[in-house]
Design brief:
Helix content: 55-70%
Number of strands: 9
Strand content: 15-25%
Radius of gyration: 53 Å
Distance between the termini: 130 Å
Strand order of the largest sheet: 1-2-5
Largest sheet: 3 strands, antiparallel
Length: about 290
Amino acid sequence: MGNAYCIFCGCIEQASVGVVEKWGRFDRLAEPGLHFFNPLAGECLSGILSTRICSLDVKIETKTKDNVFVQMLCSIQYRVIRENADDAFYELQNPREQIQAYVFDVVRAHVPKLNLDELFEQKDEVAKAVLEELEKVMGAYGYNIEHILMVDIIPDSSVRKAMNEINAAQRMQLASVYKGEAEKILQVKKAEAEAEAKYLGGVGVARQRQAITDGLRENILNFSHKVEGTSAKEVMDLIMITQYFDTIKELGNSSKNTTVFLPHCPGHVRDISQQIRNGMMEAASAQHVNTE
């Protein structure tokens, strides 16, 4: 049920206050409830004001210290002071326009002192300055400013695009640094793994050759003991000939070999063994000379 009144009486609803005049002059404030008026004495209900909190959204376009045009959306919450409702009723024709004018004045006085980044960081300070100015001015007219919120700061579209590109470039640069560090770690680990693999491969080859050498030595000794009249040289020649034919056999059994054979014969094996023995004897002789 809303406010209802006639020439003789009126009903003021909750969160409202009535203004009663007598012979065209302010007489008193009417609290919520039923009131009777004496029109013969010049009494009448001149108007009703709501004491609820009202909201006013103001959009201000201004420029920052670094010459960036921005739009600021400011939300002002205000209400009529019940005790000073007569001032609110008689002093201001349009309180919303008055509040908007003061918001424009204060914001355009503070924002040009700040850079764009500072404006985002200090928007609460701007709202506080607007609140202090409005409380001082609008309080004299019977209005109380409850809250002021800087809802949004909207730079020019080209500025927003440039800021996004700068942010993206910085993130790409950081990502490149992390990627480079990761690749560096991978390369180091790969090199360490290759070095370890080569080391283990060398150890395996050395053990393999040691085993072959031990086996050959044992075979030579066994053969020399079991077959009388044979020398170590003859046994070594026999073993090399046997290995030569085993190699020829393995190459013949595989159909995917790409080995190129040069002219050769089994006698070359003896020449090879002779060259190896001569090299070993020359090395031993050189070592003996150096010792003397």
